Amino acid sequence: MKIGVHKVAMAAPNDVSELAALIAAGTVDPARIVALIGKTEGNGGANDFTRGYATLSYQLLLAPLLGLSPEEVGHRIAFVWSGGTEGVLSPHATVLTRDASTVPPVAGDKRLALGIATTRTILPEEVGTMVQVREVARAVRVALAEAGIADPADVHYVQVKGPLLTPASVAEAEARGRATVTRDPNGSKPYARGATALGVALALGEVAEEALSDAAIARRLDLFSTVASTSAGGELTACEVLLFGNAPAATSDFRIGHAVLRDVIDADAVLAAMDGAGLATGSPGMGRLDAAARSRIAAVFAKAEASPTGRIRGRRNTMLSDADIHYERHARAALGAVIASVTGDPAIFVSGGTEHQCAPGEAPIAAIMRV
Amino acid sequence: MKIGVHKVAMAAPNDVSELAALIAAGTVDPARIVALIGKTEGNGGANDFTRGYATLSYQLLLAPLLGLSPEEVGHRIAFVWSGGTEGVLSPHATVLTRDASTVPPVAGDKRLALGIATTRTILPEEVGTMVQVREVARAVRVALAEAGIADPADVHYVQVKGPLLTPASVAEAEARGRATVTRDPNGSKPYARGATALGVALALGEVAEEALSDAAIARRLDLFSTVASTSAGGELTACEVLLFGNAPAATSDFRIGHAVLRDVIDADAVLAAMDGAGLATGSPGMGRLDAAARSRIAAVFAKAEASPTGRIRGRRNTMLSDADIHYERHARAALGAVIASVTGDPAIFVSGGTEHQCAPGEAPIAAIMRV
Amino acid sequence: MKIGVHKVAMAAPNDVSELAALIAAGTVDPARIVALIGKTEGNGGANDFTRGYATLSYQLLLAPLLGLSPEEVGHRIAFVWSGGTEGVLSPHATVLTRDASTVPPVAGDKRLALGIATTRTILPEEVGTMVQVREVARAVRVALAEAGIADPADVHYVQVKGPLLTPASVAEAEARGRATVTRDPNGSKPYARGATALGVALALGEVAEEALSDAAIARRLDLFSTVASTSAGGELTACEVLLFGNAPAATSDFRIGHAVLRDVIDADAVLAAMDGAGLATGSPGMGRLDAAARSRIAAVFAKAEASPTGRIRGRRNTMLSDADIHYERHARAALGAVIASVTGDPAIFVSGGTEHQCAPGEAPIAAIMRV
Amino acid sequence: MKIGVHKVAMAAPNDVSELAALIAAGTVDPARIVALIGKTEGNGGANDFTRGYATLSYQLLLAPLLGLSPEEVGHRIAFVWSGGTEGVLSPHATVLTRDASTVPPVAGDKRLALGIATTRTILPEEVGTMVQVREVARAVRVALAEAGIADPADVHYVQVKGPLLTPASVAEAEARGRATVTRDPNGSKPYARGATALGVALALGEVAEEALSDAAIARRLDLFSTVASTSAGGELTACEVLLFGNAPAATSDFRIGHAVLRDVIDADAVLAAMDGAGLATGSPGMGRLDAAARSRIAAVFAKAEASPTGRIRGRRNTMLSDADIHYERHARAALGAVIASVTGDPAIFVSGGTEHQCAPGEAPIAAIMRV
Fold first, then answer.
1. Quick one: where's region RU C (chains A, B, C, D) (predicted)?
2. Residue of chain C whose alpha carbon sits nearest to that of D285
3. Cβ distance B86 to B332 under 8 Å?
4. Which pLDDT tens digit goes with each residue over A109-147?
5. In this predicted complex, what is the ipTM?
6. Domains in chain D, start-ordered, CATH in brackets?
């Protein structure tokens, strides 16, 4: 397996010109595209339509090239968007291609691999429950196998998109005599994101199945995955898993590493994630990156979170009490700037909402580096 | 001269308890307080009343201690507030005291000095004109003398607050048959901030008087000071100058340095400002700060600015086109996080609006370090 | 009893000049002031400090006039502020004075009366429970007696301010081994506002005590008062009740009436509230108000609410899904404009949060009219 | 000529299902659609992409039905979107069809007519100048003729969309040695909207050509049209004119009227606009609308504006000083609610920006009523 990583800038949510140019130049074969992960310049909230607009725009670009309808493109390629380019964050997409290897792998040299799998439909009454945890865990194991990864320690980033509850889905469940974890659509997000994160943790052995139960979801926050990054959207009915790791059989030009952000100004963790991908600049505390090191960074994916204590490094933080700007926007602005100050590139993926994704207040970060 | 630097956290704009405690403990003598520079948790805009609320609250604390009315406290002590604690920025005030030295200065060892001066009343028709530039320059020279600084290269930070135009002041000028630079109060900010910054630049020899004219103000942005940090408020009628530098006769426990931020993710400039204050960790590119180095940081003052090109490190930035969050808030969130990631302390002073304060897109940063 | 109603405009949260002028002119006797109800130009959220700033400013005005400390003024006079002047809403305060009658009441002519009462301290573990409901009911009965009102049908507006949970109060309760209704401070608002509203409903016979229980609070929204308007703030420990009605013994120059707003564009209810206060312009459907009728309007108090169904008059509404502007701000902007279009005066009191204050989606409105 | 007016609700910017259903039912013939005028649920600012998303979505619906490409649909049908559904405003589109009359007109009974015309390309250096004024005036005269309207008094609403300056267009002009009215893209909006509005005023005889000059545009605000509603967008290069009026030869089931809103709470003007379209309920001051009258309202188009004096009906207004919510959003929230309180329908078109469209602080409103 050989994974390609192509970052394309976007001048607007419907600007697909850079990918079009890569395809025209023969750099990207549209038939090999398996996923797009990107940031759009919306507000990141329920009324952020830049994500849907971007998806539709890329579908319209690719449909004639693949001989498919736009809807079929949506089924074939995983689109993961996070809205909100606060601070210096720059709208872009990371286009991932997957191809068979044309050269034999080098023994002992694990390279970037990507496995993709989808669960069965998760019913509304299953969202945020152990049923969802187990279905996601099953899909993670499928993705693990597809990626050719045997050791869970080789997994560095697992992006999962799944359903949340909507007024319509709650009503549909109740019409069948079924209860949902909550009747509040917004309130279902922590459960939905939390259950999918615990599914990752279960599959990778980060938590024991005995420790898990319906009651633990969105509450026992001491149970978590350090490589899961999950989101929930009203338009989905199944969970889609993108699993990134380093595999012995892969021959990609990239490796991936990860680390845990202690808070949104944890620059050391940014370096540690790259270090884990083979940057080899030394331990945290090492010097700042030079141009050569920076040029090797292909993509950074991170989650940003407000401090649940209302304090960062002992100082009071006002994110959670701000009625004008949502705390996720503050958190993304801060973390995005810190990462960009290290990497020199503001086109990075930073999203919000970290239930069961690292300990409370902490968050995962992963980096894909050119070898 | 001996300058004291005391950072106090604030749990709300009217929380003066930490300064009260420092006074009660004898650490701060209220009679020696000459200035407060701080951040409040408002929106930083025209309808941000947290600044006035904080000023009133400190005036009410100090009035009985000084045997003055609250208004008299306002005349005696300079209050400089910037509203907006975006990202990780934490509400606080840096309280500055000034005292006679009790020990003789060490030859060749320049230490933190502070000079304060005020211009005459600037008439509405003078705001944003060469008259204001020259009056500010005169006040800067007075402050320079008061600080005991002979060499302009020893000046590292000049905070100036001055008037902007209001509907009332425009009407008052017109009633006298005088025209103002603009009739738009909001539109007067760049002129007001720009003219005071050019006053600093003129006094310190950063620009030649011949290069200056009314037409240059807010337009010839290639003319600037690299140590000015200016603001404009409707409540002021004169310009208040706080000049920080290192002076041979000062015996403070602090030194100050400064640098120029190339953009809001320029972590190297943060280190350079401290380096200039004697951190001695090496040149930019040096290692990250250890706990000992961090403990020496007493205060950081910086300006944050959106990129006028709409690009940061070659990537498109959406600050200027965002209709939901003002670009100054994006810029402060980003720069505050980057500085805090270096210093480990989110209680830093970051404000917006940089006309004639460094080149377009660039901004000044100063650091006060314990010796 | 004779109640005075004086509306004063405010040019900023700390502008107390109009009340100062009324006092200087002898129009208002500061010793007779019992309450201020007003709007300030903040965001209405947790980080809205304009309310505290306004309170402090009026306390500083009145303290020397009353020979009290600012704190003592706060204990003597009830301050009720709602932050947020969206749309056309204009910052102002309605100052209420209470005096003994100097003329005998006219038989059968009920006039504006005001009773004020405070509960004992409500412990954190009591917030949002039946204990609070009963304590508020007791205080409402005290206020009813003080106002000289025998018939609950003569009560038209009951403003109640009470405590919400804070991180500190939750911790304090838990340290004593007590559980609170929720550990989430923001999440405690519906319980706190709801329990006080049910206390009003209980005292006025709008709901039967048997129908009430801890489980009903913030859940059984079919139980409500149509005259309660409640708010919750972290700075309070007891509930303060301001009860407005028409009493036989009152000789005020005013009467009060109320109605139920079906939604935020229910102009008929605005007219009905005035009608109830003796406007006598006919039933809903009557003509628009002429200048004479408008000049009789002394004050309007209303609550604004988003439609829980997401629809208004059958059309989809986007308030609840807007991540940029809080739905309470949308609702206040809409209702404030509709009321002002009827009354011709944008200085009206419109606040948000209506748990158990009318049926879901509906809200109370009261009008004080000159006789 | 027979004009059809079909209001379709939208559950999201890409929801075209109601128009699809009208087409499927045979109610709307896609070949007869000439324009869509609607509101989308964005923020109405430069980063509001809901307008483009909605246009693309309708183009994709109509392209296969018309045998055209999506781009060709854009050239054939005029799309006019205003972003921002503040307060109660509800996302929707009013679809306008135009057909030959199948029955002879009744003498003396003027009915709804619609003329559409486009100017030549307006060069960047012409934007906001007399060249643009004259080109728009010429297009208005073409539209007038197309609508079959001889008397300008029969024109009640002229919607014009035209170009604004962008960084690219300014640069392009300067490369050719041409200067633009301003180099600031945002600052070009008043010029662009103002010049198109003056073009309407010139064509309809509302201002004399002698009174106009480049210097008057966006400055001589005493010159205006009372029926123009103009907008400017970076994606346009020519001006598109939609002229609505009542024509003797038209046999539509509708009539149109208009009025001038004195401010955003001017409910009388809402009634007057309908009155002008033949509602016949009496003069301003007439009673509120009954269900029968409301059912005749087909569409309302209005502009909302902040008061330039900062006062509405003598009360201070805080729209212009609010740094959190743009004043256009406040104004739309207020006016939209007032109109909906009269019409009973929140699906109305309210947009912002009124340079030379009525006197400062005033704004146009038009209503299309079923006969």
1. 254-371
2. C288
3. yes
4. 999 999 999 999 999 999 999 999 999 999 999 999 999
5. 0.95
6. 2-99 (3.30.1330.170), 111-245 (3.30.1330.180), 253-370 (3.30.1330.160)
